[in-house]
What we know:
- By secondary structure, the protein is α/β, with parallel strands linked by helices.
- The protein folds into two domains: 2-86 and 181-275 and 422-480, 3-Layer(bba) Sandwich (FAD/NAD(P)-binding domain), CATH 3.50.50.60; 138-171 and 280-345 and 366-415, 2-Layer Sandwich (Cholesterol Oxidase, domain 2), CATH 3.30.410.
- 25% of the residues lie in helices and 26% in strands.
- The protein is built from twelve helices and 24 strands.
- The chain starts with a strand and ends with a helix.
- The structure holds flavin-adenine dinucleotide.
- It comes from Nocardia aurantia.
Amino acid sequence: MSTHxxxxxxxxxxxxxxxxxxxAGRGTVILAETGPDAGDPPxxxxxxxxxxxxxxxxxxxxxxxxxxxxxxxGLGGGTTVNSAAALRGQPWCYDDxxxxxxxxxxxxxxxxxxxxxxxxxxxxxHGAAGPIPITRLGAGPLDEAVMDWCAHAGFDxxxxxxxxxxxxxxxxxxxxxxxxxxxxxxxxTPAARAAGVDIRADTTATRLLFDGNxxxxxxxxxxxxxxxxxxxxxxxxxxxxxxxxxxxxxxxGPEPVLRELGVPPVSVLPGVGANLQDHPWCLLxxxxxxxxxxxxxxxxxxxxxxxxxxxxxxxxEAEIFAWQARPYDPAAPATRVSFTAALMTPRSRGRFxxxxxxxxxxxxxxxxxxxxxxxxxxxxxxxxxVDALAADGxxxxxxxxxxxxxxxVAAARAVVSTYNHHSGTxxxxxxxxxxxxxxxxxxxxxxxxxxxxxxxxxPIIPRANTTLPSMMIGYRAMDLVA
Length: 482
Ligand SMILES: Cc1cc2nc3c(=O)[nH]c(=O)nc-3n(C[C@H](O)[C@H](O)[C@H](O)COP(=O)(O)OP(=O)(O)OC[C@H]3O[C@@H](n4cnc5c(N)ncnc54)[C@H](O)[C@@H]3O)c2cc1C
């Protein structure tokens, strides 16, 4: 069976739903999403639960560490399984890309258009009318204790972590409505349906179709079996692992990968799957002495952002914050809190690849010696905070705390894991750069009719959780794609 549409969008996550919604202004749109659609209005679990049933995840594993690397699956993608922490990053994150058309000033209008900021809508850099609500929750007792420590340690107070250049302590910016997670599933799907987007859930794009180098559509496998969709423009928004996998399966990728898969090459691009980036984090688990102190908080309480001094690198940024473990792990004691030490300026790079046996992922966390040193410093600072809270009787620190044992760099390397911000595997850049996969207009090099718009195009990961940057890319796609 074959059908035609003006725009085919593959992947309905943070970027894909924005892309499909805006594409409806240019004709017919089919959105193929491999995972489920739980309908409108969004059910309560999609707003309030943090550990969802298995169909809502793609399960990957870091082949070096054996640690889990989940990805969201289903309408909303990562925004339906994530913690709704909503940061944009700093202006210099975008300016440092040096990609024409993608400076901070050029990305800001999309950041404004996609949000309605509940507290700071009047500020020039915020929006008041977009579908994603941005809010800061009130501080609970643990947040107050953390922020007192930050003040005594000399950090500045930040009312709005999304103000350009904000550094210091204050409440997390989150994408929530009535306390519930409000990502693209809740926020954009109703508008996309109303605009006429043909949303096909449980439908996987198995292969892109080409006539020479022109992408003409894709083979989809849905509840009614295989379907060929022909389209004037195809935009792949399948995420940091789903996008390179689909490109590789379709003949776009590094030559050795295509040869191993036995796929005829359409465009040989060594950059597909390379440049994998993520923010590494180390978790310092403690218990609050009074469970009322944490108010059943997922990631939405107090946040400290600061820069580490380093004569060899500018703006090396760290995050420190605490969250209650139980919403993510029902077996955890109600008192368990993970204090997070995160490096937001990683220089380590990993790789995603596809072989006949399936995907292989290596994040490369802390393989760069500078990253490992920075992480050890952030862990030391976080331990100071935890020790101060323990001295005040707010938390109890385990006697065998890993961060007190031996060499801090080795200790950090032993426990480091993912902040779930995988990106960069189809990096955007100049056509003359051999690492480039998509050009600044989001076209896939060596092809026509094919674009990528999602977290995979990020050339350098911003100093931010990656939902808002991914939404910004999806929002902008239809302004750039021919
Ligand atoms: C557990 C977890 C917690 C996180 N916490 C936060 C947080 O609190 N704050 C934050 O800012 N970021 C967070 N992130 C990261 C953030 O959610 C992602 O960076 C963001 O969703 C990426 O957007 P995307 O559009 O690139 O991909 P996604 O949102 O992952 O969307 C890709 C979509 O494509 C679909 N797809 C893949 N392959 C195919 C195919 N072949 N055919 C059809 N469909 C396909 C997938 O099922 C998925 O729905 C978290 C991520 C995870 C996994």
